[in-house]
Amino acid sequence: MTKEKKFKLAVLVSGRGSNLQSIIDSIERKDLAAEITIVLSNKSSAPALDRCRKHGIESVFLDPKLYSDKLHYDRAMIQLLQKKSADLICLAGFMRILGKEFIQAFRNRIINIHPSLLPAFPGLHPQRQALDSGAKVSGCTVHFVNEEVDAGPVILQTTVPVHDTDTVETLSQRILEQEHIIYPKAIQLCIQNQSSGRRT
Ligand code: GRF
Questions:
Q1: Which of 58, 88, 92, 189 is the most exposed place for a label (fewest CB within 10 A)?
Q2: Side-chain half-sphere of 103: how many Cα atoms within 13 Å?
Q3: For 36-44, what is the mean pLDDT?
Q4: Ligand 1 mean position to 16 CA, how many Å?
Q5: In this structure, what are the phi and psi dihedrals at residue 93, rounded to the nearest 5 degrees?
Q6: Are 35 and 8 in contact (CB under 8 A)?
Q7: Alpha helices of 29-167 — where are they, by DSSP H?
Q8: Of all protein residues, whose CA lies closest to atom 7 belonging to ligand 1?
Q9: Which tops the pLDDT comparison, 72 or 6?
Q10: Shortest-distance atom of ligand 1 to CA 140
């Protein structure tokens, strides 16, 4: 019997890793036809790394202090992700901006999740930006990553209401619940898309 080649995901994290967990859970439930080939963190203390240990997933802490500059750090990431034959790179709370060389190395194969309805509220503190703007609706977006921050083509979005009584915490929580639903779905769409050869 021939072993079916699994679609390989690399997940880049810096912190809590709840989106990573939603991807792990979807794979374990067999809702997502993929495997996580590597999780890469730029923070040694990221709780996301504990999730990897718990689920037997290979993870790496790549220490930015060991590299002379951003370019060399990006090159180390490229080398590692190529070695692990990643088909798709999923940014899940990865708090570094990727340079041109990295984007070019994996063109149309890097995706990100952002807690706003892009193009509204890109960058830092999008939930705070939504509250300050008086927006009545916000949400989350999964998008392809290009050279601009939080700006590539949208794959999936979901809306949530913004209530007058919301704080950053309550709005963030409402959005996060939707993030955990749409990120695995968006990954599944990318798998279907890459399998049919349209975006590679
Ligand atoms: C999420 O809100 C995600 O949209 C943003 O960073 C946060 C990461 O949370 N890019 P977690 O580490 O996945 O729990």
A1: 58
A2: 14
A3: 98
A4: 8
A5: 75, 30
A6: yes
A7: 47-55, 70-83, 100-105, 126-133
A8: 93
A9: 72
A10: 4
**Rounded Cα distance, 144 and 147, in Å:** 10
pTM of the model: 0.95
CA of 113 to the centre of ligand 1 (A): 7
**What tens digit of pLDDT does each residue of 68-89 get?**
999 999 999 999 999 999 999 9
Q: Answer yes or no: is the C-beta of 22 below 6 A from any ligand 1 atom.
A: no
**DSSP character for 65?**
G
Q: Catalytic positions, please?
A: 114
Q: Are residues 71 and 96 in contact, defined by beta-carbon separation less than 8 angstroms?
A: no
The atom of ligand 1 lying closest to the CA of 94 is 10
Q: How far apart are CA 31 and CA 185, in angstroms?
A: 9
Please give the DSSP secondary-structure letter assigned to residue 1: -
Over residues 119-146, the pLDDT tens digits come to: 999 999 999 999 999 999 999 999 999 9
186 CB less than 6 Å from ligand 1?
Answer: no
State if residue 46 touches ligand 1 by the CB under 6 angstroms criterion. no
From the CA of 20, give the closest atom in ligand 1: 13
The pLDDT value recorded for residue 4 is 67
- Which one, of 75, 14, 65, lies nearest residue 44 by Cα? 14
How far apart, in whole angstroms, are the C-alpha atoms of residue 91 and residue 168? 22
For ligand 1, mutation pick of 13, 91, 113 (most atoms within 8 Å of CB): 113
Inter-axis angle of helices 168-195 and 126-133, nearest 10: 120
